[in-house]
Amino acid sequence: MKPTCENCGKSLPNESDEAMICTFECTFCKDCVDKVLMNVCPNCGGGFEKRPTRPSSLLTKYPVSRKKYQKPIDMEEFRLTLAKYKNIEPNKR
């Protein structure tokens, strides 16, 4: 479980309601998904869903990652992916 938004670096702890993931578990905050990515994953072209919360009883055995995966979106590069997928429902991409 990634602890931050890959685009803006916002903290996304286990209990966050702001964490969104794609099928490959790319992790972004809800603001970036809605306002920057338009529900298109810049890595795979898929859509996003709310990230589930890991049960607190399992956090000791399976802790949240401490590694930050921040790689701000290159909007020039992303515009091609966005144009290709933004008008197609995620389950039909």
Key attributes of the depicted protein:
2 helices; single chain; 3-stranded antiparallel beta sheet; 93 residues; alpha+beta
Write a structural description:
- 18% of the residues lie in helices and 9% in strands.
- The chain has 93 residues and is α+β, with helices and mostly antiparallel strands.
- A three-stranded antiparallel sheet has the order 2-1-3.
- A hairpin with a 5-residue loop joins β1 (19-21) and β2.
- The chain has one domain.
- It is built from two helices and three strands; from the N terminus they run ββαβα.
Topology (elements, then pairings):
Layout: E1 19-21, E2 27-29, H1 30-35, E3 49-50, H2 75-85
Antiparallel strand pairs: 1-2, 1-3
Quick structural summary:
The chain is of the alpha+beta class and 93 residues long. Helices cover 18% and strands 9% of the residues.
Q: How many strands, what sense, and barrel or not for the largest sheet? A: 3 strands, antiparallel
Q: What's the shape?
A: elongated
Content-based structural category: alpha+beta
Helix percent band = 10-25%
Integer count of domains = 1
What is the overall number of helices? Answer: 2
Rg, nearest Å: 14 Å
User: Average pLDDT across residues?
Assistant: 96
Contiguous low-pLDDT stretches (5 residues minimum) are none
Instruction: Tell me the total number of β-strands.
Output: 3
- Walk across the major sheet and give the strand order: 2-1-3
Q: Would you list the SSEs in sequence order as H and E?
A: EEHEH
* Range of strand content: 5-15%
